[in-house]
Design goal:
This protein has 75 residues and is an all-alpha fold. It has one domain. The protein is built from 3 helices and no strands.
Length: 75
């Protein structure tokens, strides 16, 4: 369907074209964001639930294991 030139140069048609352009840009942005992997900001924040020092009755043993990379097997 072809419109006459007077409709294409009217103010309401320009407003409608601007609305469609903004709407398209928003949906394209949402589609791109949805395809990207999810970012969890808590992964980059310091963990508050880990103790800064051991509270064991044998603190040297835990520190030695941690430095050497030894892990006890789960039972």
């Amino acid at each position: 369907m072809l419109f006459p030139e007077s409709i294409l140069t009217s103010d309401w048609f320009a407003a409608l074209a601007a609305f469609v352009a903004i709407n398209t840009a928003i949906y394209v942005t949402l589609a791109v964001v949805k395809t990207l992997p999810r970012i969890y900001f808590r992964d980059y924040l310091p963990r508050t639930y880990e103790r800064s020092e051991t509270r064991s009755i044998y603190p040297d043993a835990e520190e030695r294991k941690r430095r050497l990379g030894h892990h006890e097997p789960d039972s």
